[in-house]
Amino acid sequence: MSRPTSRSRRPLTWLRRPSLRRRLALLSALAVVVAIAAASGLAYLTMSEALRNQVDRALLTNPLTVANGSGTSPLGSPAEGRAGRVDPESLCSGTTDVATRFQMVIGTVQLVRADGTTCTRDPAGEVTPTAADVAVANGGTATSPRDDVTHGGTHVRVRTTPLGSGYALLVARDLTDVDATLRQLALVLVLATGAGALLVLVAQAMLRLASADAGPPLPDIALPTLDGAPLRLRTLRGEPLVVNLWATWCPPCRRELPMLVDAGRRAQGLRIVLVDQREAPATVRAYLHEAALQPRWLALDEAGALASRYQTPGFPTTLFFDADGRLRRMYVGELSAATLQQGIEQLRDAAAGGAERR
């Protein structure tokens, strides 16, 4: 039987190589770790956004009730979450300019005039503005639905809502507790990501170990050859081993036997042993003479010990053992040259992987 060289079969053989599967498994594990990290980051952003939205809703739905009319109402300290209605024209004494925006820093309301100049008033009478306060205020204006200002170690959110001509509602809230919650959330997500990554890597390592130890070892039995000398299978360890269980009465066995004999004679660093099942030496010898076949390695299993040990459902059955004598694969049915080559490549990849680990 000729060895197929069709390019259409090559990708399938290439994709089944253990070395490639190990690389794909590693890439899959890394992809899972990246996915866990991305999910944790998304969870952090989503939860932090939800917390800040909750703060905004609380500020807008629970402001301090103030009377209508001109004048100012105390805003108090932002840490208390107070709000007030502000008349920009009476915010600073003698000011008649129309305000372009309001700013707030730790209880201090600042009016920014159209020409960019500012005047500052402390509605609650609790804070005396300084140059530092004004500088921070200029960097934290309340000109959008949500503005954050940090001052003196306190993180404050300012909410500005127009209430009509010349009026605005200023609301402030201390976000220090929210920041602490977010830091705790970030720590939890980092630990969860690390734990998930560790579990994935440990699981992959366990699968690799399980794969490395897959299958029972070569049995310590001696099988006679055609000349009567015993062949002890355990002594064949040290190189990859292919054991083919066959019989002369089995048509698919007869069809694949020439290919196996040829592969066994040409193989380098590999042994292919043909083990006849439950037949007399004379029967096997006569068939090989008739078929003009001269196997390099042949043994007789008149008791069917190997078939019983590996519970083969029929013949032919081909067993692929690595150099340590561990069963890596069992193929039931007629072998093609491509399937045989695939099994041999898997054994050689396993041998290369074992050498790397050592």
Can you characterise this structure?
- The strands form four sheets. The protein has a five-stranded mixed β-sheet.
- The chain folds into three domains: 85 residues; 112 residues, no CATH class; 141 residues, Glutaredoxin (3-Layer(aba) Sandwich), CATH 3.40.30.10.
- It contains nine helices and 14 strands.
- Helix 2 runs antiparallel to helix 5.
- It is rod-shaped and about 95 Å long.
- It has 358 residues and is an alpha+beta fold.
- GO terms for molecular function: antioxidant activity; oxidoreductase activity.
- Keywords: Membrane, Transmembrane, Transmembrane helix.
- This is Thiol-disulfide oxidoreductase ResA.
- InterPro entries: AhpC/TSA, Thioredoxin-like_sf, Thioredoxin_CS, Thioredoxin_domain, Thioredoxin_ResA/DsbE_sf.
